[in-house]
Amino acid sequence: MIVFIRWGGLCAQILMFAHAEASYFDAPESSNSSESCPLPMDIENKDGVFMSAAKRTGVAWVGVVVGAAVEEVIRFNKAIFVLTNSAIDSEGFISGCVYSLSGGRFLSLRLASVDGREHVMSVGAFPSWRVSLDYYSPAILECNDQFRDACSVILK
């Protein structure tokens, strides 16, 4: 009898793990619908205006640092996401992707639309987003993983 209870417990754990793994890595079906903070080497500086192409047409990553005409982006620090509706698929917006510059200052890139409209975003089930320890609000998430596409969001 004890063998059956242990066997049942083991099977339940395996099934729960398999279900959790499937939802943990639930990425969007269309790769065009996701965006992530660009790599430092993909960011161009033109007289203090920092830009990087986005995956989706009609949007780009943009940031400005006054007096940083010759500085280079050297390191990604973190991305900050503000939840506006956590009940619906963790909707909100990226407040910024924060980078270190060669002169010791910081750069914050935002996702800007060519037509000026704001995009509804979601962190979905991307595992790199966690509640920020730098802010006193569960509505502010951060991602500081360094690998490509770690800090992804879904554009809706």
UniProtKB/TrEMBL annotation:
InterPro entries: DUF3757. The keyword Signal applies. Residues 1-22 form the signal peptide. Keywords: Signal. The keyword Signal applies. This is DUF3757 domain-containing protein. It comes from Pseudomonas lactis. The lineage of its organism: Bacteria, Pseudomonadati, Pseudomonadota, Gammaproteobacteria, Pseudomonadales.
